[in-house]
Structure formats: C-alpha cells, structure tokens
C-alpha cells in the first residue's frame, strides 16, 4: 500500500455525478488553490455499508463546506450506476439527496493511482490494467490541502465503515496547524490546546 502523505495527490479527469446530473469532465485539479478536498473511495453502489457512509457525508456536508472543504466520493462503478443510485429513494436502497460529486472510476485508473484496489493488478506493455479477482476500491480517504498535497490518508478493509467525526477532526487539525503553527497532540479536537513543536512547548502543554 502506497503512502501518499506529503506527496502531490494524483490528478484525474473522469465522468461524475454532481447534484444528480452527469458531468463529462470532472477533475481534481479544478479545486487547486481554491479548496481543501476530502476524497474518499468506497467499494460499490447499491450495497450495505456504503450508503451509510455516503449519506453521513451528505448529512455533514455543511460542516465540511464551512471549513472550505470539497467532499468527493469515488468508486469503480459507472456514472450511470451512480446516477441511478442517487436517483433512488433511501427507503429503496438508494442515496437520494446526495449532492457532492461521485466520480466514476470505471477503468480503475484513479483507484490504482491512489493504491486502493482490492485485486492483484499490473499494467501490461500497452498501458492496460490487468487484474485478477474482483477489482473494487477499499475504503480509502485522503485529505488534500489547497496546494494539492495529501496531508492525511486512511484505508479501511471492505467491512469497516469510517468515522465522519474523525475526517472533520483531521481537517480541523490541519487548518489549526496552518493558521497557528501549533501541532496537534493525541485526541486533539477543535477548541482544545495544541502545542508548539519544541521541548518548551511540549512541557508547557503537559503541565496544564
């Protein structure tokens, strides 16, 4: 599994569903210099754990937006599958009301670039992705700053849902560091004391 933290987030240009409509050319780079990005991958549309996550991100969308964060979901399903899922009522197994972009990584290149594909895979001499086994995305999440650098990543196995609160906490920690230059200790959350990256700063924090 690749560690992308500290590196440039792989850009992409793909079909996506945004606010219930199919967009032909959706790119990560459009947010460069403008917004933070929380990019998360999930295994499949029309499944069981996935809708709990996607709906939770939608329910918390206002909290991300007030922090200047663009939420983006992605899976290896087609844009037509995304569109159908978004336009299916929640009591029928759909995610109606999800407005943030859902990227269609149909050719698996985005999941491959972020190293979250479940199957063993390689690239042949013609540049085609060759896989063995089912090829879907693990539950990867990447926090990308306004300069396009990955600052946090976490990858869960398929049965293990993520925490929206933790994703927001990581955004808060990054923004706190950027604004004040203070580092954020174990279990830090917005409003709590942080510390300066020095022996004196640590000693002051621990003495409180």
Helices and strands in order:
Blueprint: E1 13-18, E2 21-27, E3 36-41, H1 49-59, H2 61-65, E4 69-75, H3 79-86, E5 102-104, H4 109-113, E6 120-123, E7 129-132, E8 139-144, E9 150-156, H5 164-180, H6 199-207
Parallel strand pairs: 3-4, 4-5
Antiparallel strand pairs: 1-2, 1-5, 3-8, 6-7, 8-9
Low-pLDDT stretches: none
C-alpha geometry: globular
Beta-strand share of residues: 15-25%
The termini sit apart by: 39 Å
At the fourth level of CATH, the homologous superfamily of the largest domain is Glutaredoxin
CATH topology of the largest domain: Glutaredoxin
Question: Which percent range fits the helix content?
Answer: 25-40%
Average of the residue pLDDT scores? 90
CATH architecture of the largest domain: 3-Layer(aba) Sandwich
Secondary structure category:
alpha+beta
Structure annotation, total helices = 6
SSE ordering: EEEHHEHEHEEEEHH
**Gyration radius from CA atoms, angstroms:** 18 Å
CATH class of the largest domain: Alpha Beta
Subcellular location: Cytoplasm
GO biological process, one term: response to oxidative stress
Keywords: Cytoplasm, Disulfide bond, Oxidoreductase, Peroxidase, Redox-active center
Pfam family, one: AhpC-TSA
